[in-house]
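dumping this here so i dont lose it
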């Protein structure tokens, strides 16, 4: 079985970056939760959770992110989300989880193609 998250990549300053490779949903939440818990227990320093290849699809996915954030803090670590799509960002902000988001520069944000508007008839 393929891992739900990619292996750690050092990003300097004692931080590690890990990419979620599956959409966070009820179906994937248990595997992602277990992998993040293991990651949090096994290291030190901040964790950057790259969501550019994923997104939160339902409440179980959201709960997985929030629980990982809390668990990291309990272990003296900081977990921050980077590369989140606009929907995931809105969900985190509405849930009062601004501290979970790491603000990105325009160059770091994923490029999303603009939607074409249909001509008015």
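and the seq i came up w/
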């Amino acid at each position: 079985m393929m891992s739900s998250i990619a292996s750690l990549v050092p990003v300097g300053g004692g931080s590690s970056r890990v990419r979620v490779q599956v959409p966070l949903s009820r179906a994937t939440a248990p595997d992602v939760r277990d992998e993040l818990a293991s990651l949090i227990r096994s290291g030190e320093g901040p964790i950057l959770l790259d969501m550019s290849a994923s997104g939160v699809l339902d409440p179980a996915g959201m709960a997985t992110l929030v629980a990982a954030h809390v668990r990291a803090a309990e272990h003296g670590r900081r977990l921050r989300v980077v590369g989140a799509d606009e929907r995931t960002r809105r969900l985190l902000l509405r849930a009062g989880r601004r501290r979970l988001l790491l603000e990105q520069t325009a160059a770091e944000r994923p490029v999303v193609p603009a939607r074409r508007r249909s001509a008015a008839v």
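The chain has one domain: 9-100.
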